[in-house]
Design a protein that fits this description.
With 780 residues, this protein is an alpha+beta fold. It has six domains: 110 residues, Roll (Nuclear Transport Factor 2, Chain: A); 74 residues, Nuclear Transport Factor 2, Chain: A (Roll), CATH 3.10.450.40; 147 residues, Elastase, domain 1 (Roll); 181 residues, Orthogonal Bundle (Neutral Protease, domain 2), CATH 1.10.390; 84 residues, Immunoglobulins (Immunoglobulin-like, Sandwich), CATH 2.60.40; 114 residues, Jelly Rolls (Sandwich), CATH 2.60.120. 21% of the residues lie in helices and 30% in strands. Helix 4 crosses helix 5 and helix 5 packs across helix 6.
């Protein structure tokens, strides 16, 4: 855990002690520092493999040798239970040290241990006894030194835990929402309702969590959580619990399966792997698969045992993969086997994981001849179970895409682990089962957009719209990242299959190989990701995992960052420096500028900043990269910022910076200001050189983008605090505002700092994304 700064210490003890010692409370500054990755001592120039300069082809592989200390230590069931019990006993003290509120408590949910002695404990959170959704976090400890990883420990607060909206009304609202999202023929009913604190968006709200059950159009059972604001009745979000996704098998040839003798018959059960059992659920009746001679199936769908062989083999290989690679003792790491159920429904071309029954369920395909029991699909479904008991990624928004991608990633890794001659390992999902009946794979990891269908298309690269997609399509970003991290970009052939993976920025990416890439993802999932991790958070988590495994000065660390840059998440390393592109938003004459160049390096020591061509009146701080000042001349300026690290390596960032004319009768602030939901923002504008008061017909021009323009209340605030109404609430459902308003400011001095105040008053019945003020101006 050398890469995580500590937030407290206690005397060294050989075990995870329950003894309490005084520690320093976690501060905001310390929390910000948790995500900083300290760099080991620099011992001269590092190898250049994996460092990509513009226009230079990347090597296909990065030579990466994992540090042994970061490997997982297998825990027996008794050891794991004992450590969880101890963490539970320590939870009150841990909550105090994290600075949580008096009404908050931590609940230990999972624990993993590394070879270097680091213990990672995952906690859920409660508030006034109510479960908190989105408040989970991970605390790591080694040698008595603790640190927070994977989430913020922001103190939660809600005005009241008494719901203004009744449980009955919330249930009715949830049922309407669920029915609206389904076809008319799909039955829906509210199965349960509970009060919670919803903190997944960073703002704590008292809410109702209603579980609406039913059956989707394709026959998949549904258990949809509809989260409703308990104060306003607004639907905050919704997500589904159900994750879709010697024997003779249909897809893997003749394979070994484990059975037990039960009287005169053999039962398809596996006592070596937690007692996993395989059932036939034809017609809704669950029947354990049995056989007289212990030879199962004939390799064709005509024999109903064949699908069971594939399912049992998939469960076996998945268990072995997690056990042999990561020391994981079953899906929940508790030694308990899951259950497989085959022959679900009729013409059902899907498979799903269900946490409640801890089971995988497989349909037989559109023609009832192509069961969804292919190895990578089986491993995909069981990995949903692994994700559920580790990061718990909520199945909506970007966290939902990461959940789905994790199953594709590990399903692919299991397929390569099994290395079956009958099912050639590849970077395609469901290619043998022909899920859609098109003869094509369900998903392509090297170029996800090739899976285009009537229901949607997976994304190759991240966009601002990623969070709005179905998780099966937003998963494409992570799938593409993983392929690039494994194999690298460009054209290549793996196991006789050709791939040609593109990158967002057109630059090449070097791969780490499947073994190392899988290690990075699994470590990030189990140590650093939490229920609300988004793509930016996944980049941080995988970089931290790479730092643990290979060190922050390694080519492997840079390869992880570059693979994310290749799917438009975060900056790329060039000359061992990663830098966000400088903002090209215009500035304005007479309006103060304060912008900072964001850069990091895998070399130790401070960065130095310099710039040429800056607009007149602006300077750059050589130590911080902060560009500040007040522009004095309007023009288009050709600027180049240069970032230099301690090894004298330089990264150049050229861009054009426009400065708008502002002054006289017209003053403009072109800076963007984001508007958080139900919050207020203020954008300043400096007016100078005018005498007397402003006019009775002062013109206020506003350019604003929001999903519900009518809910934005806008005021013009003078320097003395006087607020003039510019735009009130109106029932306008437009998404952009480009308008000029007239206000009477004749009693107020013209010179000074004016502010445009925008308050989001979107009605609670709407679910909207945050908007932004693009620019505004005053004309006298």
């Amino acid at each position: 855990m050398s890469n995580l700064p500590s937030w407290g210490r206690k005397p060294h003890s050989p075990s995870y002690s329950t003894t309490r010692h005084r520690r320093t409370a976690l501060t905001a500054a310390a929390l910000a520092a948790f995500l900083a990755l300290p760099v080991p001592a620099y011992a001269g120039p590092a190898p250049t493999a994996g460092t990509v300069a513009e226009g230079t082809p990347a090597p296909q592989r990065v030579d990466a040798r994992p540090r042994p200390g970061a490997q997982a230590v297998p825990l027996t069931g008794a050891q794991r239970r004992r450590m969880l019990t101890q963490a539970t006993g320590d939870s009150a003290g841990t909550a105090r040290e994290l600075g949580l509120g008096s009404r908050e408590k931590l609940v230990a949910k999972d624990v993993v241990k590394d070879a270097d002695g680091t213990v990672h404990t995952r906690y859920a959170r409660t508030y006034a006894g109510l479960p908190v959704i989105g408040g989970d976090l991970v605390v790591a400890e080694r040698d008595g030194e603790q640190s927070l990883a994977g989430a913020s420990a922001t103190t939660l607060s809600v005005a009241t835990t008494k719901a203004a909206v009744s449980a009955a009304d919330a249930g009715k609202s949830a049922l309407r929402a669920a029915r609206k999202q389904s076809s008319p023929a799909e039955a829906r009913a509210v199965a349960s309702s509970r009060r919670i604190v919803w903190a997944a968006t960073g703002i704590a709200r008292l809410a109702w969590d209603n579980v609406v059950t039913g059956t989707d159009e394709d026959g998949t059972p549904s258990r949809t959580h509809v989260i409703t604001d308990a104060g306003t009745g607004a639907r905050l979000t919704s997500y589904d619990e159900i994750r879709t996704g010697e024997g003779h098998s249909q897809y893997s040839g003749t394979v070994p399966v484990t059975s037990v003798r039960g009287g005169a018959l053999y039962e398809l059960a596996d006592p070596q792997r937690g007692g996993h059992r395989t059932y036939d659920v034809t017609g809704g009746t669950r029947t354990l698969l049995t056989d007289t001679d212990d030879v199962w199936g004939d390799g064709t769908p005509a024999d109903r045992q064949t699908a069971a062989v594939d399912a049992a083999y998939g469960a076996q290989r998945t268990w072995d993969f997690y056990h042999d690679r990561f020391g994981r003792n079953g899906i929940a790491d508790d030694g308990v086997g899951a259950t497989s159920r085959v022959h679900y429904g009729s013409g059902y071309a899907n498979a799903f994981w269900d946490d409640l029954c801890f089971c995988m369920t497989y349909g037989d395909g559109l023609d009832d001849k192509r069961p969804l029991t292919e190895l990578d699909i089986a491993a995909h479904e069981m990995t949903h179970g692994v994700t559920s008991v580790t990061a718990g990624l909520i199945y909506t928004g970007e966290s939902g895409g990461l959940n789905e991608a994790t199953s594709d990633i590990m399903g692919t890794a299991v397929e390569f682990f099994a290395d079956s001659p009958a099912d050639t390992p590849d970077y395609q999902i469901g290619e043998l089962a022909d899920v859609r009946g098109t003869g094509k794979p369900l998903r392509y990891m090297d170029q996800p957009s090739k899976d285009a269908s009537a229901k949607g298309t997976s994304q190759d690269y991240w966009t601002t719209g990623t969070k709005k997609l179905d998780p099966h399509f937003s998963s494409g970003v992570a799938n593409h990242f993983f392929y690039l991290l494994t194999e690298g970009s460009g054209s290549r052939t793996v196991n006789g299959i050709g791939y040609d993976s593109p990158t967002y920025d057109g630059l090449p990416v070097a791969g780490l190989g499947l073994h190392n890439a899988t290690n990075v993802w699994y470590r990030a999932l189990t140590r650093y990701m939490t229920s609300t991790t988004d793509y930016a958070g996944a980049r941080t988590a995988t970089l931290q995992a790479a730092a643990d495994l290979f060190g922050t000065t390694s080519d492997a660390y840079e390869a992880v960052g570059n693979a994310w840059a290749a799917v438009n998440v975060g900056p790329r390393y060039v000359s061992h420096i990663a830098a966000d592109a400088p903002s090209t938003r215009a500035a304005a004459v007479g309006q103060p500028v304060d912008r900072r160049i964001s850069a990091t390096s895998t070399r130790p020591g401070a960065l130095a900043y310099a710039a040429t061509g800056l607009p007149d009146g602006l300077t750059i701080d050589p130590a911080t990269g902060r560009i500040s000042g007040t522009p004095t001349r309007a023009d288009d300026f050709a600027v180049t910022v240069r970032v230099t690290n301690s090894a004298a390596e330089t990264r150049s960032l050229p861009f054009t910076w426009s400065v708008l004319a502002s002054g006289g009768d017209h003053f403009v602030n072109p800076d963007r200001y984001d508007i958080p939901n139900w919050r207020t923002i203020e954008s300043p504008l400096t007016v100078s050189g005018r005498s007397g008061n402003a006019s009775a017909d002062l013109k206020v021009t506003v350019d604003l983008v929001h999903d519900f323009i009518g809910g934005q209340v806008i005021q013009l605030v003078a320097e003395d605090g006087t607020a003039l109404l510019v735009k009130d609430f109106v029932w306008d459902t437009g998404t952009e505002l480009h308008a000029t308003f007239t206000v009477d400011a004749s009693t107020l001095p013209a010179d000074g700092t004016w502010k445009l105040r925008v308050t989001d008053n979107t009605p609670g019945i709407f679910t909207v994304d945050p908007g932004y003020l693009d620019r505004w101006s005053l004309t006298f």
